[in-house]
Specification:
Distance between the termini: 49 Å
Number of helices: 14
Largest sheet: 8 strands, mixed
Shape: globular
Helix content: 40-55%
Length: 299
């Protein structure tokens, strides 16, 4: 099987390398020349345009894996459509709103093209070593791709979750939970910092990540962050929100489901733009460790 991967940033490149390691032929494209060069240097066959990408091994069907921000997906599909053939499959593995994914599914299906939505978790390391994949789409289409998803995912880290749109819906809920968990970790370390004790934050995070009830990959990210900067003095406590928690809170209102923890975690990110607290520094540091998200540096 060959895969045409569009978007060779932090996540996309590691997905490409993961696939290559599993014996797939990967053809990559990115509008950023530096991203193309990095991918070429690591063994990815790259294209300088979508037209060139589509021309590689004209097998039927062709699989296009999109690893780009949601705001660029519609434009990309519009440019890709003239190059697609019936039964080709477009796989959106970014963080798109599930409602938009349903619309994209119907739009492409009306032209004979299949669409699969994949919620992708695990950060940069997961993309390279084994991700967690939440897949939505028509059952027969997903079955034809199941070996790909199993190869890309960590053990027991793949699930077919339902009809088109469901993969991105489940990922939205996942990310909302993530907001709440990170906020709780940040607030805990905020209280440690305010205490009269001389606390080694790295040591505490490391100890908590071995045998405690709150052990997790996020706690491992905290330990890594403190190993690099013992009191996070080099970064600001400004935390961006990528949209999923906002979508989740909106759906909570729509379906009359109370989401107080996730709502408060979202509000804390809004507030972080105005007030520099240690809890927000911890959350910002966690996001940088697992996803390579940008932090605001102190000057």
């Amino acid at each position: 099987m060959n895969v045409r991967l569009i978007g060779l940033g932090k996540m996309g490149l590691n997905i490409a390398l993961n696939l290559i390691e599993h014996g797939y032929q990967v053809y990559g494209y990115d509008h950023d020349q530096k991203a193309l060069e990095r991918a070429r240097n690591q063994g990815v066959v790259t294209a300088e345009s979508l037209l060139e990408l589509a021309a590689f091994e004209p097998l039927k069907p062709a699989y296009y894996w999109l690893m780009i921000p949601n705001e660029f997906v519609d434009s990309l599909i519009e440019h890709l459509l003239p190059l697609l053939k019936p039964e080709d499959v477009v796989i959106d593995a970014g963080n798109s709103h599930y409602g938009v994914s349903i619309r994209r599914y119907h739009n492409l299906k009306s032209k004979g093209i299949d669409f699969v939505d994949v919620g992708t978790s695990g950060g940069i390391e997961g993309a390279r070593q084994g991700a967690c994949l939440m897949v939505g789409g028509e059952p027969e289409v997903v079955r034809g791709l199941e070996s790909l998803f199993l190869d890309l995912s960590t053990e027991n880290g793949y699930a077919y979750v339902g009809r088109p749109g469901s993969g991105h819906f489940v990922k939205m809920v996942h990310n909302g939970i993530e907001y709440g968990m990170m906020q709780a970790i940040g607030e805990g370390f905020d209280l440690l910092k305010a205490s009269p004790f001389e606390i080694d934050y790295e040591a505490i995070a490391g100890m908590w990540n071995h045998g405690s009830i709150i052990a997790s990959s996020l706690m491992g990210n905290v330990e890594q962050a403190f190993a690099k900067d013992r009191d996070l003095s080099s970064i600001q406590g400004r935390v961006d929100d990528s949209g999923e928690a906002l979508w989740m809170v909106q759906d909570g209102l729509k379906y009359k489901v109370a989401l107080p923890v996730i709502t408060q975690a979202l509000y804390a990110r809004f507030k972080s733009k105005d007030e520099d607290r240690f809890s927000e520094k911890v959350v910002a540091a966690i996001r940088k460790e697992f996803g390579g998200h940008a932090v605001y540096k102190n000057t």
